[in-house]
User: Which sequence fits this backbone?
């Protein structure tokens, strides 16, 4: 990666559909996910993600919110057709990094990585 992402701002960089993109779960993105997951608070949303067992539909919602928060103009339908480097393993790793950047912890600590 080229290192454009600012981890202090919660940004993650990834190659999606062959293009380097910045993802970030902004406050607006998190509000979007609270609605999508019917969570009544950020703490409830975090607990939902920590519980694991995310469905493909959940991964699409998280990835789409992160892309939009990073300034990318995409719909959930656009995201559903995108390819992430390293396939499903790469997607799970990316979503885990994005959630870790938003909710805290260190990359790779396993605290927020989803269990697809």
Assistant:
């Amino acid at each position: 990666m080229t290192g454009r992402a600012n981890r202090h701002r919660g940004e993650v960089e990834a190659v999606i559909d062959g293009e380097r993109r910045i993802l970030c779960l902004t406050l607006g993105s998190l509000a979007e996910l609270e609605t999508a997951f019917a969570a009544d608070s950020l703490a409830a949303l975090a607990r939902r993600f920590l519980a694991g067992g995310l469905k493909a539909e959940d991964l699409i919602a998280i990835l789409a919110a992160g892309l939009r928060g990073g300034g990318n103009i995409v719909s959930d339908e656009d995201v559903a057709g995108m390819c992430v480097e390293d396939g499903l393993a790469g997607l799970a790793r990316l979503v885990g990094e994005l959630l870790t950047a938003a909710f805290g912890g260190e990359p790779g600590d396993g605290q927020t990585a989803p269990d697809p």
